[in-house]
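Database export, one record per block. Field names are fixed; values are copied verbatim from the stored entry.
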Amino acid sequence: MERSAVILKSNPYGLIVNLSADLPFEQLLVAVGEKFASSAGFFKHAKLALTFRGRVLTRKEETQLVDVIVQNSTIQVLCIVDEEKESAEYYKEAVMHALEKKKQDEGLFHRGTLTSGQSLEAETSIVILGDVNPGASVTSKGNIVILGCCMGTAYAGAGGDTACFVAALTMKPALLKIAGFAARSAIIKKKDTGEYPADPKIAFVKDNHLQMKSITNETLCEYLA
């Protein structure tokens, strides 16, 4: 294959792929695959923005090219940049924007226990790798999943979405809220060791009532119904 069919120009955040304007597209796909396969060790697991130059491409052709690149390398393509800009700073902005969007789409992870007086707020769903202790609170406009013991306040669907849920490995909340529905614990402890056996539960709104049930296939089917 002609070496000049695919020429790569990179910076720390982006990659410009110059394509032959004359090579038939099917042959171009092969050339791109060979180019990235031979350069795989250089790019490793890079997360990059891409710009294709040298020929006009349809959306379908862009998708095919990205697929070939991913199949023949370990690059993670975050976005395609159409503008004729080459500065590293411009590509950095594009990558940061794509990563932020990815984070918003996938939700937020928090590692660690929330202790008394601490609060955590999120615009998206959140997964907490730890406990929510008495006096601590977590608020999300999406769902809340606590991979630990919930003994404080958990408020899901803070934007008014009653389809949201709260789930925890151990559910002993002082206050539980989903959208406009709330339930308080009959007994609130200022100090709690959290030494409870794991008993995964999910809380959700059904028939205008806040319900809390053990996580089973039947419960999940009921929630999704």
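Remark 1: The radius of gyration is 25 Å.
Remark 2: The chain is about 25% helix and 35% strand.
End of record.
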